[in-house]
Each structure stands twice: as C-alpha cells, then as structure tokens.
Q: What sequence folds into this?
C-alpha cells in the first residue's frame, strides 16, 4: 500500500475507498497491520498460543457428543432462543452450568463477547455508573459504551483506586463494578476478596468475567468465583465455553431475576441464532469431563510451576501469574515479532501481543500452557526462549 497523502484524505473522506485507504495506511505506518496465520490440520507445531487450557478441544468424547447433538437436532439451531432455537440440550447445559457455578440459573450466549455486551446493555443506561478495571477485556468496555453508561476506569487490580472513585459517585445512582476474573493478557487473578467487600460497602453489584478462570481454577473447575462467592457477593458471573471447555459459546450465571431480565432485554441474546445444538451437546460433555477429571488441573498446575521455575532460572522476563497464561514482557514490538518468528521456526507456536491490545511499551509473548503439554514440551519451549535471548546478546 502506498503512503497516504493526508491532504487528499481529508478532502475525500466522504468517499469509501479513501476512507479504507486512510485507515489501512495509518495501521501500516504504525506497524500494527494485523495478520492471520492459517492453521492447517496436521500442523506439527506445539501450541502455546490457544486457550485450550485443559486440552479438551480434541477430546474424542467431546467430538462424539458434538456429532450426536448434530444428528439429533441438526447442524444448526435454525432460530434464536426465543423463537424455536432453544433445544433440550441447550436447556440441560444451562442447568448444568448453574449447578456447576452454584447459581440459581444460567443463560447461554453465542460468544463471550456477546454475553458481556448483553449483560452491560441490559443492566445499564445513562443513569448507571460502571467501574471497570483498566485491563478489562474489550467486550466489557464496548458493552458499557453500547449501554450509554458512564464508565470510570480504576487502576489495575487496585481496590484503593476503586474506593476513591466510588466515594465520589453521587448517592442513589446504580453502580456496577466490572472485572475480568483472570486477566487475559497478564494472567493474574482479580482481587476478589477486596472487590466483594468494596461492592457490598458501596451497594454496588459486582460482575466478574471469568472467561479464563472457568474450568481451570477451583477444585472442580468452577473458576475463581464459582462456588466460593455467593450470588449476593458476585451478582453477575460470566464464563466462556471456547477456552478451557474447548468448545464455543458462553454463559451468564446468577439469580433467576437477573437471568429473566437478560432474556427480556439483552439484545445480543434475543436477536441472534442460538448456538448449534452440537456445540451445546459437546459443551455438556466437556463440562462433565472438566468436573470429573481434576487430574487435568493438577497436571496443568505442575506444568505452570515447572515453566516458571525454568524460566526464572533462565532469566526470562516472567510476569506475576499463577495461571496458565504466562506472558513474557519484552516491551518492544519488533522484539516480540522476532522472538515469535524464531520460536515458530523451531516448531513452537506462541502469541505475539502488541498495542493496542496492550499499552505501548508493553508488547509481550503470550504463552499459554495446557494439560495437553508434558514436561518435555515445556523444556523445549524454555530452551528455545533462551536461544532467542542469547541470540540478542550476540547481535
Ligand atoms: N472475556 C475475556 C476476558 C476474554 O479474554 C475473551 C476472549 N478472549 C472474551 C471475553 C470473549 O469470549 P469469546 O471468545 O467467547 O467471544
């Protein structure tokens, strides 16, 4: 793409081609052009990039359940939940998710992104104040925008800053505190004890998006909130099925009044086709495996400890995370790209995360560990990372 002439752009912004060229040129000039790699079946690389934390996405029992669901109900659900798309298998899955998280009810959404948009849009309006952790997922920020709510962002995982903002809020306004459970790019866990007590003190509701904790944390994989915090402490719990559960979709869990409200008012729930029944059937099987095979979580924790000890010895720039998300903070965008290419050449697939997904100067390799891995693959990864580091010293 040729460099963009700013003068021409401003004169022609009413033209679609000019608009597209303007944005493409800006993105390229900032070095932020996004590329999609096509993953082919039979790819031999070891995957340290996906969110398949329990290694369930390729489990034959789950694939078989997906086929069974499709055979019984068809490849697609054919309609939204409120028309005719809500099959018995969706219903069973919702009931199982509610039991698993210790909530009265659960409601399925087609993706986690839509669940977050749906909750915020249905609960909030311009009379509502939303308090968000600075590092919350994009879907939470977008949801508050869609709701036209007033948002305040507190310093990451900082209860004092949250208190400061809440103290300034006008009395009588509805308040919603929103946080990732496990932060997707840092891997750290939200300070839930502090958040629940601050929320109670300030008469706020607390919404936790446990996309990366659900299935991974807790004795039975109920996540960082799950059964530990009751629904009068964490009123809105969001979990996704496309990560540890290895399938797709998401759910919101809470009291019946919350779920009924979402069914009535959450537009990303109402106006979209229900998840394919095969996916619901696969998720039901996956949830049951997740609950009954705690050894997957134990193995994963063992790999996390092994990786951290080896990476620390190797002097790699680890972040403070106890979850399967183990980012290496490299800072510089070009450096991140160089390391990820070198790792790919050695048969290791690792996510390269750059601004705007993270703040400027905070580019990182997002390494994710999975119960699929073994100690040998972790050692191979650490050796390859050490090679990247040594290569730099010799440059
Ligand atoms: N919340 C968080 C914290 C996430 O990291 C993601 C996806 N990466 C989502 C929500 C969106 O979930 P989904 O991929 O199911 O849309």
A:
């Amino acid at each position: 793409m040729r460099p963009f002439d700013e003068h021409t752009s401003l004169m022609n912004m009413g033209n679609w081609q000019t608009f597209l060229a303007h944005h493409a040129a800006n993105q390229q000039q900032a070095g932020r052009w996004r590329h999609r790699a096509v993953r082919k079946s039979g790819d031999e690389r070891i995957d340290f990039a996906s969110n398949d934390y329990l290694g369930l996405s390729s489990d034959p029992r789950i694939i078989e359940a997906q086929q069974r669901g499709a055979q019984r109900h068809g490849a697609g659900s054919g309609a939204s939940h409120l028309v005719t798309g809500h099959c018995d298998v969706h219903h069973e899955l919702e009931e199982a998710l509610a039991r698993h998280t210790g909530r009265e009810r659960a409601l399925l959404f087609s993706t986690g992104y839509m669940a977050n948009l749906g909750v915020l849009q249905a609960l909030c309006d311009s009379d509502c104040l939303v308090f968000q952790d600075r590092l919350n997922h994009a879907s939470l920020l977008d949801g508050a925008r869609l709701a036209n709510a007033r948002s305040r962002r507190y310093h990451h995982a900082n209860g004092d800053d949250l208190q400061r903002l809440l103290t300034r809020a006008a009395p009588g306004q509805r308040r919603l505190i929103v946080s990732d459970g496990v932060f997707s790019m840092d891997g750290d866990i939200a300070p839930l004890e502090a958040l629940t007590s601050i929320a109670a003190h300030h008469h706020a509701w607390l919404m936790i998006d446990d996309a990366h904790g659900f299935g991974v944390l807790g004795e039975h994989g109920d996540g960082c909130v799950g059964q530990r915090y009751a629904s009068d402490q964490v009123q809105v719990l969001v979990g996704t099925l496309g990560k540890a559960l290895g399938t797709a979709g998401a759910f919101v869990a809470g009291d019946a009044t919350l779920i009924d409200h979402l069914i009535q008012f959450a537009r990303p729930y109402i106006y979209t086709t229900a998840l394919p029944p095969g996916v619901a059937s696969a998720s039901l099987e996956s949830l049951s495996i997740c609950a009954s095979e705690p050894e997957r979580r134990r193995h994963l924790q063992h790999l996390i400890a092994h990786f951290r000890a080896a990476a620390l010895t190797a002097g790699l720039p680890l972040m403070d995370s106890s979850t399967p998300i183990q980012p290496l903070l490299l800072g510089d965008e070009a450096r991140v790209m160089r390391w990820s290419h070198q790792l790919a050449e050695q048969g290791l697939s690792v996510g390269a995360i750059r601004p705007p997904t993270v703040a400027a100067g905070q580019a990182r390799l997002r390494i994710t560990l999975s119960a699929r891995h073994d100690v040998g693959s972790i050692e191979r990864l650490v050796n390859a990372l050490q090679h990247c580091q040594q290569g730099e010293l010799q440059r």
